[in-house]
């Protein structure tokens, strides 16, 4: 901190010459010495009347800074003591700049830090501090005018130093305020992150739900779904999703997957019709739009009731995400429930695939893939050999021949409903679990 009054050292005395040297430096030093004497005389009076000066400052701040009124009303003694300490350090710095410097700095730092913790606006704190500086200067002038009016002109020589002190301590207050503000913001963000992580993990305690709801700005008893977003096989920033038709979304950034906790709007499952939590909209086909570039993989889970069930919603979103193609895409769980059953129980899915499709393992790999691709295409075409042939660029009779060969090798009938269900699930398990 620069001292309120800078000490000016005398220039070295010049060597004696034939011509007399100008006396301007000596006159200037005499003026400075007189100014310091006047300053110290007035400052000692202010120090003696510090309680009265504090009362005046408190009244001025209450009158001119509305943001301080609530602080004064809630803790009048504390605010008065804070102002008293600040004024004492300020006046002491006029009397002993070097000796009072560190204490004054610590006092200003504490004021900035304390007011940041209390949430008082920084502009209000700085305004109050400058009002204190103005009051000290006014007190110096008033006391000098009362005691020796002719000496008021000497205070001009120390005015810059006094106001430099005020500016410097405003900077200290600002630095302390912003440092604490950053710390508080980090704590709030970290607390929100921890609460959201516990919610998604399903480890939140019932007693913590009200705090979690406040932190996420969401109701405890709403309808929610979770969107899981990842980016597979490509470089770049992991994608996010644009969620339309949702009342609110809180994004939680994970190591490999980002999760959006979606509060669905009024009107059922998401405010845009449909079922199973279709409040997530965007892009072609009503899915969230990947906003992180090509390769973004998005899984949309089903809707659940209440924040306490968000952990289950996250597991549903993870299941949908596991069904996403490796090169990117969006999968909504409610539109792929059979596949979700397979992914949710990979051991059983693998067993089913081995049981139904195992006999094909004795074939040449290329021939086996042709048969499996033909059956999968025929199923996708709702059992139409004509449309399957068009997709596979072959005649419908070729499709029918391949289907009969598949039935012969596996011992399953595509006309029998139970066999058809097993074949469909086995193909799904083979496609999803082989990744």
UniProtKB/TrEMBL annotation:
Segments for region (Disordered): 1-23, 268-298
Q: Which Pfam families match?
A: HTH_30, RsbRD_N
Domain called RsbT co-antagonist protein RsbRD N-terminal: residue spans: 52-190
Report the residue ranges that make up the PucR C-terminal helix-turn-helix domain in this protein: 371-429
State the source organism's domain of life. Bacteria
Listed InterPro entries:
CdaR-like_regulators, PucR_C-HTH_dom, PucR_C-HTH_sf, RsbRD_N_dom
Its recorded name reads Uncharacterized protein
Taxonomic classification, please?
Answer: Bacteria, Bacillati, Actinomycetota, Actinomycetes, Kitasatosporales
